[in-house]
Design goal:
75% helix
Length: 219
């Protein structure tokens, strides 16, 4: 009975690990097959470490983003949130939604869950979504334009909520709201453009080096 169970042991496991005797009439795994199996196991290990590192770092980045936002609170419409979310999206992909989620949650817990917080629920995850298809690019100019453009348009993302809250029930009120917001949007856009151009690429490179070390490779 024991011999029968031994014969039914999965062949794939034997082939992968290179253990056990070769089946009658068949050659055992070659050296190349053993090396290939070892590489697959090592790649899985590295992938697991990288994924765990990402899942730990992205929420920490959310808290760090909030701390930087508080530190820069005295600067009018100059913020680090755009930079940090673009950075995490470029390096960690969809896991950057964790960064955005933690940041938005901390904003609500500290400053209250007001109408502006409802805008944050979709405004910051939207930036992550925009960045995901751009991960294959490495142009500082492109990323600076994205950061600047998003900063300029950020104020307009409040319009759907503010139309209900204020309310902005006529075109005259909506037009006045948009016009009075333009100077603040310009400051936001220009500051984002400069910060994105100067800091995003170096920070991305540094974070990619850290990720390469986690994977056990040389960057």
């Amino acid at each position: 009975m024991r011999n029968t169970l031994d014969k039914q042991e999965p062949r794939e496991k034997k082939k992968l690990l290179g253990f056990g005797r070769a089946e009658k009439g068949a050659a055992g795994p070659s050296q190349a097959e053993k090396e290939s199996a070892a590489r697959r196991i090592e790649n899985r290990r590295r992938f697991s470490h990288e994924r765990l590192f990402s899942l730990l770092v992205c929420p920490i980045f959310g808290s760090l983003t909030f701390a930087l936002k508080i530190a820069m609170a005295g600067l009018p419409n100059i913020e680090p949130v755009t930079l940090m979310l673009m950075l995490t999206a470029l390096v960690f992909g969809w896991k950057a939604f964790l960064t955005a989620g933690i940041y938005v949650l901390l904003e609500g817990l500290v400053y209250g869950f007001s109408s502006w917080w409802l805008v944050y629920l979709y405004a910051w995850p939207l930036l992550v979504l925009i960045m995901l298809p751009l991960r294959r690019f490495r142009s500082p100019v492109l990323f600076a334009l994205v950061a600047g453009g998003y900063g300029f348009l950020f104020g307009f993302l409040f319009l759907p909520v503010n139309i209900i809250v204020y309310p902005l029930d006529t075109m005259e009120k909506i037009t006045f709201y948009i016009l009075q917001d333009i100077p603040f949007n310009l400051i936001h856009g220009v500051s984002n453009l400069i910060i994105g151009f100067v800091l995003l690429s170096p920070l991305r490179k540094a974070l990619e080096i850290a990720m390469a070390k986690v994977r056990g490779k040389t960057a």
